[in-house]
Write a structure and sequence with these properties.
This protein has helices spanning about 15-20, 25-35, 45-50, 100-105, 135-140, 175-200, and strands spanning about 55-60, 65-70, 80, 85-90, 110-115, 120-130, 150-165. The protein folds into 3 domains: about 1-35, no CATH class; about 40-170, Roll (Pnp Oxidase, Chain A), CATH 2.30.110.10; about 170-200. About 35% of the residues lie in helices and about 30% in strands. This is Pyridoxamine 5'-phosphate oxidase. It comes from Elstera cyanobacteriorum.
Length: about 200
């Protein structure tokens, strides 16, 4: 029995039926054949994650009610642990525990990453578990640049991931990056003005 393509995690029978009816099934069947939904954490994905300051974490209740939560931290706070596993330290927040509660009933998750600077987005499917009783793991995932004390670890077992096209993604830049660029520009202007003044006086 042949193994189902990794993209089946997103392309369910209902999705494929719609693709067939609306004329895009052949295109995505070719994508499935090429195995474009990857299942392991690659070097390029690790490099991408090392630069990310935030992502969106989607969970669902036992009866399928979805919930999405923003997660943020220093660049690279979501860490690669091995070729199948990502992890991050969980800090005290508003103490609603919505995502955690959902994971107790339904471990399936979806992570959505937006890189506005380079107009890239990555979708990642997997399962997650919350670890409370492993201080070494929590310390390993803790980023010293993060605010607060880590209370637990959240591990993501990767099932599949895919890079989306850049269409409709607005280009935005981090404030710190803009400030650095402006400072470099201002320094260059000051240097050129000094050179002009020296030539004029000479």
């Amino acid at each position: 029995m042949s193994q189902s393509p990794s993209s089946d995690i997103a392309f369910t029978p209902s999705v494929k039926a719609l693709q067939t009816r609306l004329g895009s099934r052949a295109q995505y069947a070719k994508m499935e054949a090429r195995g474009e939904f990857r299942t392991e954490v690659s070097a390029d994905l690790t490099l991408f994650l090392a630069a990310q300051r935030s992502f969106y974490l989607a969970t669902a209740t036992a009866d399928g009610q979805p919930y999405i939560q923003h997660r943020g931290g220093p660049p690279g706070f979501l860490k690669t642990l091995d070729s199948e596993t990502l992890g991050f330290a969980d800090y005290r927040g508003n103490r609603q525990y919505l995502s955690w509660g959902n994971l107790l009933d339904n471990p399936k998750v979806h992570l959505f990453f937006m890189d506005y600077t380079h107009r890239r987005r990555i979708k990642l499917w997997g399962t997650a578990q919350v670890i409370e009783d492993d201080p070494d793991l929590i310390a390993r995932l803790h980023d010293p640049m993060a605010e607060g004390v880590p209370e637990r670890a959240i591990l993501i077992r990767v099932a599949a991931w895919d890079i989306n096209c850049p269409q409709h993604i607005p280009q935005r830049f981090e404030a710190a990056d803009v400030a650095d660029a402006l400072a470099a520009r201002d320094a260059r202007i000051a240097d050129l003005e000094a050179q002009i003044a020296a030539l004029t006086q000479g």
